[in-house]
Amino acid sequence: MGIFGLVTGFSPAIGPTLSGWILSYYSWQAIFVIVLVAMLINIVISIAVVKNVTTTGPADLDLLSVVLSTFAFGGLLYGFSKAS
């Protein structure tokens, strides 16, 4: 989560600056070429690295979680409906 937060916070700050720098040396079409190349590299790396982890067995039902979630969401709904 920390790395995701860092990227999410850093991207809006560096994106316009980097785009302006690229546009000062190249045409606006270069932005799309760079994004296309980065996308293709990411797809190739993802196909090579990410493994298929799907399981075909039946999923277990956790009844305690179902009951607690029902009371929690029901309580939230009741609280929001009485607050107005």
Automatic annotation (TrEMBL):
Recorded hits in SUPFAM superfamilies, A to Z, give: MFS general substrate transporter
**GO terms assigned for molecular function:** transmembrane transporter activity
Topological type in the membrane: Multi-pass membrane protein
Q: Which UniProt keywords apply?
A: Membrane, Transmembrane, Transmembrane helix, Transport
Localization terms from the record: Cell membrane
Q: Which GO terms describe its cellular component?
A: plasma membrane
Which intervals hold domain Major facilitator superfamily (MFS) profile?
A: 1-84
User: Does this entry carry the keyword Thylakoid?
Assistant: no
Which stretches are transmembrane? 26-49, 61-80
Coiled-coil-forming residues are none
What protein am I looking at? Drug resistance transporter, EmrB/QacA family
Species assigned in the record: Streptococcus dysgalactiae subsp. equisimilis
